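Hi V.,

You were right to ask for the full record rather than a summary. Here it is.
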Amino acid sequence: MPAVRHALRASTGALLSGAVGAGLLTAATFAAAPAASAAPTSTTCTGTASVYGVLDDGRITFSAINPARGDLTRVRVGPDLGFTPKAMATLNFNTVLVTSTAGALYRVDVRTNNTTLELAGVEKIAASGWTHDKLTYDGHGHLYGTAGGTLIQYLVSQDKPQGSQHIGQRKEIGSGFVLKTLTAAGDDRLLATTAAGALHSYKINSNGSWDRDDLKADGWSGFDQLVSPGGGLYYGRMGTTGALYWYKDANPQDGSGADITYHNDDPVNTDGWSQKLLSAQPNTFKCTTTTTPETVDRDNIAQVKAAGRNLMAARGASWNTDTQWSCLERLWERESGWRWNADNPSSAAYGIPQANPGSKMGLFGADWKTNPITQIKWGLYYIENRYDTPCGAWNHFLNNNWY
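Predicted structure:
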């Protein structure tokens, strides 16, 4: 299992070289960062990524990933499930569905995944008929599976289904779904890769028909597992190395892969993901985009700081104090002078909060390279998830000269 990573690995060049050889990267990966959106938009993202898995020896695992940093923050290994798993789908924070190689369907009840991973029970809710090779849940009542290239949809009516009375309305969506990976990315929206390395997005319509968008023609063949916690955040596991990479689709509804931000220079881990199955809990990461954002003269430092003060105050009473603002103001004054285009010549750090690399700020918008509002929102999210408050970050900076 991967260890929690505390620092960015230095061997980026060697890592990228290996990834290219595995078919993970394409020329598009190295394209320039996307320009600011033509339409004025502002994105706010919240949450984390929660991923369950099963090891080769049958033990269940839980991993938590901080989307702001792309860092693994928690790894827990639980007991053996007691059967040989074939496919899995996470319904909610303490309920996972797993099929067996014998065609049975089990409900795995998680008691806790905090300091330890403990199960409340493993219940067989169907003795046969579940021969699916892939399984995923969209977080909005629909369970999807593939069997022999056929995509099948089920309605899940209970948080802890007891059997066919709670997993019903079986509907065959279509054939020809011979896929290498499959995950749910939203309400009746699926994400999949093919053996040839294409990345597809599927929208399942209420009448059972479906529409496919071809996000990428190639470059994704290295992944044997693909999961999404929602919000356009995608994680891919390379079976050959056990590395886990992360990607952010600025608008997962637009049917285009042109706005996917790659983070291949800053993976979650370069190895250690040895689970044979992975499944993300749906809806644990969400992004909201509006078309009437805050606007500032990005070169007017006073205006940029005022916007930062307002955005910080909006995070709640514990942040909305003169003391916390003083910490934030001094922190980013030292880091960047509150300049949106501050570029560290000795590293990949960029922008007002000096995200390293700067592309991490793509979580909050494709305009991360030019929009101070996008940069500030990411910076506040990062501080809250790592240091709780601006003063926590400032104190760490004073002691270590980085945060």
